[in-house]
Amino acid sequence: MAGVSHEAIYQLKALMDQVDEPFKRTFQNVHQGYKVETLERFLKARDGSVTRAHKMLLDCLKWRLENGIDDILSKPIVPINFYRGVRDSQLIGVSGYTREGLPVFAIGVGLSSFVKASIQYYVQSHIQINEYRDRVLLPAATKKTGRYVGKCVKILDMSGLKLSALNQIKLLTAISTIDDLNYPEKTTTYYIVNVPYVFSACWKVVKPLLHERTRLKVQVLQGSGRDELLKIMDYSSLPHFCRKEGTRASRRVGNTSEDCFSLDHPFHQQLYNYMKKQSGICAPTRPLKHLEMPVADIKKAEFCRTIESELKRIQSQDELTRLYDIHISD
């Protein structure tokens, strides 16, 4: 396996075979029968170090147990109208699959407002989508393709990105830290599309702070990225914001069944119905009030401080703001 030695995988497997219940049970929910591939992911996330990967994996399992992650898919956010508000302000969805069978996750970075609920609900929703991906979507993709599918691709829509995004750094950092620590190496490529001027200015500062592994996965595409993305997926799998070029490329579409962010989209209907079935009840379920919020590491804290500083710098420069407004109105 490229990047990780067989000996390292063997050593980590031997260590994980020694864990007791309930760690063993929650580990099964992580690897879904693909233990070697899961061990490889954690080893890659820790540069092949068995000791560090073992600690990372144990910390992940402890986090899952302390926060009830194994049962999170049986805790839908209700009532449905409230959950619709969460979906309308935390734009994420699955638009289809690549030709290799990888799920295509679409994320509306620029237009997500996160104003319809507390941070706890958004974190809960994000984890539920992660778990549904790992326990339902990826196993189904593996069965359909006849080979192991353990990762996805993500398309990040930056249209509508404003300087007010600074206000959401705390939430976005919590979500990205959860992914870094507990769902490592689950994305093959991050495609960034519909980039406004403000993104270009910040990216020059942010890029050097990212780990080399992450930088190599990021591809900033021209415009909506349609032509490039059609090389790896069919048109039907493109997110709605990638299907057209121009200023209207990323607006929400009238047909909600084609808008992969909408609760009426087949992916979200299937996800919500699955969670409701798992819950076995229709009574309101409280959010995970004791969900532990992760603490960002030193590098990520530096990352956020740099973004904040750069956004404030841009915000204070009237000329850049004027150019940004002209760019959006074109």
Provide structural commentary.
The protein is of the alpha/beta class and 330 residues long. Strands 1-2-3-4-5 form a five-stranded mixed beta sheet. Helices cover 50% and strands 8% of the residues. Strand 1 (92-97) and strand 2 form a beta hairpin. It has helices at residues 6-16, 23-31, 35-45, 50-67, 80-89, 119-145, 169-182, 197-206, 212-217, 226-229, 266-279, 298-315, 318-329, and strands at residues 92-97, 103-108, 152-157, 187-193, 218-220. It folds into two domains: 6-67, Helicase, Ruva Protein, domain 3; 73-279, Phosphatidylinositol Transfer Protein Sec14p (3-Layer(aba) Sandwich). The protein contains 13 helices and five strands. This is CRAL-TRIO domain-containing protein.
Summarize this, please?
The protein is of the alpha/beta class and 330 residues long. It has 13 helices and five strands.
